[in-house]
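To whoever is on call:

I kicked off a structure prediction for a single chain this morning and the downstream step that reads the tokens threw a length-mismatch warning. I double-checked the sequence; it's 214 residues and nothing unusual in it as far as I can see. Pasting both halves so you can look.
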Amino acid sequence: MKKIILISVIVVIAFYVLKEKVYKPYMWKKAINTKEHQLQLGSFIFSKETGINGSQSYQKYYFVFKVTEINGDYVRLSVIRQLSQKDNLKESDFSTTSDQYKSLKQNIKNLTITPVLSEDLYKGDGQRFTLNQYLLNKYPVLKQSAYYYEDIPEESKNKPMPENPNDLEMYFSLVYSKKEIIENRKLVPWTMTNSFNGKPSLSQYSKNIDLIVN
């Protein structure tokens, strides 16, 4: 009986390893080369992970990003968020709830998501991330849907790295490796943290990609 249980456990483990190390990478490489799921400007990237929250317990975190710039191996992402109504403020963090995440995966291509310049989120009356009259006047499409992502001006895209070291940290905010996305299905950020030569390096921290949708 013990031998049967042991063999069963070994088979289950072998199947899991085969699925994670062979089948899933194969299916990812196959999908990334299709028009619907390939990485490109405007792609939506879905990512979820398990992390430790403030109470030191494990929690699922869900992220939805928009690709706003691809410059060599640098892929700049912006978080998909919802602007708050004046009397119903939302937490403006990077993650969404499980239900929002599932809904966005099913409806992202049919949903109006407005590119809003980062500087405009500081303008108008009320708190930041609030659907105020200034934003409604400049982006009337927000009346249809309060979903948005922070965009950068066209003239600021696809430019070389800043020469001023003080600007590099901001430049590499939410910038990830294209190679890691395509080859390893991971969001690995470029960072200037602990840089001793003034050049960015890939972080040791990464997020697994759940899906890319165009």
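Update from on-call: the warning came from a stale cache, not from the record. Cleared it. Sanity check on the structure: The longest helix spans residues 2-32.
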